[in-house]
Design brief:
The protein is α/β, with parallel strands linked by helices. The chain has two domains: 34-126 and 253-322, Bordetella uptake gene, domain 1 (D-Maltodextrin-Binding Protein, domain 2), CATH 3.40.190.150; 129-246, Periplasmic binding protein-like II (D-Maltodextrin-Binding Protein, domain 2), CATH 3.40.190.10. 45% of the residues lie in helices and 19% in strands. The protein contains eleven helices and ten strands. The chain has helices at 3-29, 47-63, 78-85, 99-107, 143-152, 167-179, 191-200, 210-218, 266-279, 283-291, 301-322, and strands at residues 36-40, 67-71, 93-98, 119-134, 158-161, 184-187, 205-209, 223-227, 253-261, 295-296. Strands 1, 2, 3, 4, 5, 6, 7, 8, 9 and 10 form a ten-stranded mixed beta sheet that branches. The longest helix has 27 residues, at 3-29. The N and C termini lie far apart (57 Å). The model is unreliable at 1-27 (pLDDT under 50).
């Protein structure tokens, strides 16, 4: 090959190598260039949907481009997550992920997308405390009494969950492992049906969000036993945390965070992260969250990604150690 041809080939290769970074920078500089779709794995009206709509409205105002909430309920958020994972990695299709995104890879034998690597972490948006509660006729008044009764009646005490493989279900399985008890899950299609049966006494105990159960606790129709967050819930300041009851390793919140397809340009992630963090400091946003019993999130994409990976590892260990059968799609 002549020197002129070598020079030409080197020039072409150099220009080709520059296309990727240049395209990413151009995408970030003009982002968002069109309406943004924010996928939600639940039906309208759920707490996840409420958070999505608050964030979407504020980003629409900030960006001058419509952020549209797209509800795709079903399959424990797998439908919405799969759409997000397979969307173009340009930031115009996002997902309001949640704790199910960390449990599903451990719970399901197969997923239609890579549950561990198929999504990019962008920013944590909100945290909601889980509550273990009981029908008022159920004798135990707290977690320690529940454990003592369960030890005397192995396998005879049932509790309601929002579904098999949910983070709440796995948390109770982990409690069983750590406390040396066997309690029996009764799985429902969502937290609301579990709530109805606990209030009516069909099941004595349930685990779900403070948001869902709060009105029934205030009305005396449910008896709170313990919250699973790192701190007491402002909505129920007299209810002890699971750490205060002797299980600091079981602290677990229901989290919500914006995610996108794997390979999102770093500049796009940084822009979304920065703007959502700003939105989360707005007074009216914090007030709306507080009314729903939700704490605002925030922080860097790296912090969210570490949290997500830690949960992937934790729930995989719970499923293994509890000997749970993996579900089929």
């Amino acid at each position: 090959m002549t020197r002129s041809r070598l020079t030409w080939a080197f020039t072409v290769l150099s220009a080709t190598a520059m296309i990727g970074p240049a395209a990413a920078q151009q995408t970030a500089a003009g982002y968002p260039a069109k309406p943004v779709r924010l996928l939600v794995g639940y039906a309208p009206g759920a707490s996840t949907d409420t958070v999505a709509r608050i964030i979407a409205q504020k980003l629409t105002e900030r960006w001058g481009v419509q952020v549209v909430v797209d509800n795709r309920p079903g399959a424990n958020t797998i439908i919405a997550s799969d759409i997000a994972a397979k969307a173009p990695a340009d930031g115009h299709t996002l997902l309001l992920g949640n704790s199910a995104n960390a449990t599903n890879p451990a719970v399901y034998a197969t997923l239609p997308y890579d549950g561990a690597k198929g999504l990019s972490s962008v920013v944590m948006t909100a945290l909601s405390t889980n509550l273990v509660s009981a029908n008022p006729a159920f004798p135990p008044k707290g977690l320690k009494e529940l454990i003592a009764l369960a030890k005397s009646r192995p396998g005879q005490i049932a509790y309601g969950t929002a579904g098999a493989g949910s983070s709440q279900h796995l948390l109770m399985e982990l409690l069983g492992l750590r406390a040396g008890i066997k309690i029996t899950p009764v799985h429902y299609r969502g937290g609301a049906p579990a709530l109805v049966d606990t209030v009516s006494g069909q099941v004595p105990v349930m685990i779900g969000s403070v948001v869902l159960q709060g009105p029934y606790v205030k009305a005396g129709k449910l008896k709170p036993l313990v919250v699973t967050g790192a701190r007491r819930s402002p909505a129920m300041p007299n209810v002890p945390t699971i750490a205060e009851q002797g299980f600091p390793g079981l602290v677990s919140d229901y989290w919500l965070g914006i995610m996108g397809p794997a390979g999102l340009p770093r500049q796009v992630i940084e822009k979304i992260n920065k703007d959502v963090n700003t939105v989360l400091t707005l007074r009216d946003v914090r007030e709306m969250f507080a009314r729903s019993g939700i704490a605002p999130g925030g922080g860097s994409a790296q912090e969210m990604d570490k949290y997500f990976k830690d949960e992937l590892a934790m729930w995989a260990a719970v499923v293994r150690d509890a000997g749970l059968d993996r579900l089929q799609m």
